[in-house]
Amino acid sequence: MGKVLKYSLILLIALSLLTSQVGSQKGLEKLITVGCENPDKFTSLSVKDKYIYAVGATATNLERGYDILLSCFSLSGELLWSKSYGGEDEEEALDLTIVGDTIVVVGYTMSYGAGDADAFVAALTTKGEVKWFKVFGGEEWDEAKAVAILEDKIYVLGFTASFGRKVDGFLAILSMDGNLEKFFLVGGEDWDELRCIGVSDSTIYIGGFTKSFGEGRGDILLIALSSDGKVLWAKTLGGHAGDFVSDLVIEGSTVYLSGYTESFIEEDDAFIAAFTKTGELQWFTLVYGIDIDSARAIDVKGNRIYVAGRTRSFGEGGYDIFLAVLDLSGKLLAFQTIGKKRTSGALTQLHELAEEIEVKGDMVYVVGYLDSVGEGFSDAFLLIEYSEKIFDENQRSLALEEKDRLVVFPQTPPSGKISIEAKSITDNIVLKDYTKEVAVESPKLGEYEPALKTHTAIVRYYVQILSEKVNYKTGYYDGGEVLVLKAESPIYFENKTRLVLKGWYVGEEFIKDKILYLTVDRDLVIKPVYLKEYYIEVVSNFSKITSGWYPVLTPLVLEAEPEVVLENGTKLIHIGWIIDGKYRESKLAQIVVRKPLVVKPVYERYYLVTIELKHETKKTWVKENSTIKLPEMDEIYENFVRYSLSLFRDQYGEKYAPGTIVKVNKPLIFKAEYTGDYTVLLAIAAAAVILSVAAIASLIGRLRRRRRRR
């Protein structure tokens, strides 16, 4: 499968550059219908320079029947112009080739000539202007099937019922200005047709159908001619029933054929065969089912063989277009059908038919007609497909509208090589010169501007988006389109619950990106992946987890600061948690998030109690609403004074007696107040006075005694 791409913003820029180079080719995958309300078809195409030219027929005027149709497209599939050509009756173009600025177209006309239908060759400019128009044939039906140009000669082949025995093949050689130089009959006693032509190295290779030679009811005929019409070799190939070649292409030293056979496995089986340029059969591959399958056109590019045709064995019912790829050994590598989706029993007769295929570069161009979509009964179509998309294993749609779509369906049909012998008839086949018997006319060809409408079916895939919250909706999206997927996130609910985008499922693959850059290259199922989150409210500034959104089933360890000291003499001590209204006595609590929660750490409050005594200050933390007993007594001697505790006074001025039991519900500061006892100091003072008096008395006495002695 094509891989789901994940990009960052930088990679998106890279993707856009890639898309402009390679992806632009992938984006060309489309089918363009051209038609009116009446039948229209393309039978052949040629890709030349920057243009695609397709020829066929259009019935814009039912009174005349088919007219020749020539359309010119750009390489991207834009219809640039269409022209039709004809007379009073019916004409149909069956093949074209381009040389220089000249388009050579061949087919049959019922408006001009000598018989029921005559072969025609027309030369036109690349703008669709008629240079010349030649009609040749006899009294019966004559039809030109294919054309090629070699060495400034135009080689036209087909079949005629006007000359020879029953129906013979013919080869006409014309100059570049339209003069018939030779007209050869190719055949035997029975029915013979020449159907396809290729040229290489001055040799003309012709594929056809013969009942005159071979094994069964009709065999494949392959002839190699020199440029002047001499038979170099001729081979038949077939079985017991009918075998029919539709197209041939020459690549290198090999001639490749495509067609269908009734001789081998089923009713009609598609075949692809390879011959050397000397006529040796290299291999013969069948692609078959239970119903009709026909390989209508073939081209070779590099080491791959591309085949287009129709199938009723595979696809959506009725006849569907098929595209197949084989390697150069004839092994089937890829196969896909293109057809309208049908319900059981409905539209089973619709036809989608590929008539011609051409591969240029990486692109495959196919033309044909289909009944199922478009403007009218059947429309001509041009299919443009990136060659690698034939290998895409994913079913997809080519959509005109929602109701009008073709399904591109990868298949794996049975296939295989069979053993078959190519028989030489070189000595039996004769080219008979009937140049003088052929009537040639140069009538004036009517030119018209047909009123045709176009519709473009682009590759679309069904993208199913399993959410209404995404910026894209379920529906069909263009192949190669880059979706920038965003989903609403977060999505909130009333109960503190939300959904958060975590990534995307694309099919079964999970991509962990919030914005998904996705290239649509297959049918997809996309689902945004949301993770449920619940809001956990933490009622605290001291918890080590914070309030926020947490994914469901997330394990959380609830932890808070064990101790918080506040500035105002208050301290908190963590003791447990309240979780969803329930108390849990644990400093560490483990929970699993399964719903919205309110969690709150539980703290016990302590207050600082300060007792300031005369000789010391005591500080202690006391649990809120607990009590403290103030000191009952305190004595201290200072300067022969005894101080005794008399009361306490707090910071608010309230007095407390020593030994009071105080209930603590706020920070408190108790200052002790004392009373002084001066008894000792007075006694000492009295003694000092007595001693002083005694000393003075003694001194006075001594002085008196001295005086007496004198």
Give the biggest sheet: 26 strands, mixed
Q: Helical element count? A: 2
Taking Cα atoms only, what radius of gyration do you get, to the nearest Å? Answer: 53 Å
Strand tally is: 57
Sheet-strand content, in percent, reads over 45%
Task: Give the overall form.
Answer: rod-shaped
CATH fold call of the largest domain: Lipocalin
Q: What is the residue-mean pLDDT, rounded to a whole number?
A: 89
Structural class: mainly beta
* Chain oligomer state: single chain
Question: Which CATH architecture of the largest domain would you pick?
Answer: Beta Barrel
Number of domains: 5
Describe the structure.
The chain is mainly β and 710 residues long. The protein folds into 5 domains: 28-46 and 240-419, Lipocalin, CATH 2.40.128; 87-238 and 423-448, no CATH class; 459-532; 561-585 and 594-677, no CATH class; 681-710. The protein is built from 2 helices and 57 strands. It has a 26-stranded mixed β-sheet that branches. The termini are far apart. The relative contact order is 0.09. Mean pLDDT is 89; it is low at 1-27 and 344-348.
